[in-house]
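FORM 7B: Structural annotation worksheet

SECTION A. Query
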Amino acid sequence: MAKNKICLWYDKDAEAAARFYAETFPDSTVGAVIRAPGDYPSGQEGDVLVVEFTVAGIPCIGLNGGSAFQQSEAFSFQIATDDQEETDRYWNAVVGNGGRESECGWCKDRWGVSWQITPRVLTEALAIGGAEAKRAFDAMMTMKKIDVKAIEAARRG
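SECTION B. Predicted structure
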């Protein structure tokens, strides 16, 4: 058992979210599904209370805590991709399953969790710095889903 896990608050769909992540991202699994031993403010005895899961190797728990708190962009999973095909696959899975697009490679899943689907070509360009980074950054600022060919062209100038 991991000493540290990310805890994500869901209204009531932690298990559905965990199963979606496990089906979508490599090195992702669903572990224990723990049911409430008694009634609680947003549920009843026997309801799914906590789901243990892993997203791309990161241990997490999903807590069905009710509608008191919402997800925000202050937390996001960043998934590094190797090419446009992989970028498209993850982006389309998240957005196409009731999620929505945002800017600069960000999107939200149907549960409100934010995702950054980020091609490595972009992060490599930004790490280089200078004019190449500026061109890649400027190109990224015009995008929703990242276009790998456009980033590569921007890097070249």
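SECTION C. Observations
The chain has a mean pLDDT of 97. Residues 34 and 95 are 28 Å apart (CA to CA).

SECTION D. Sign-off
Analyst initials: ____
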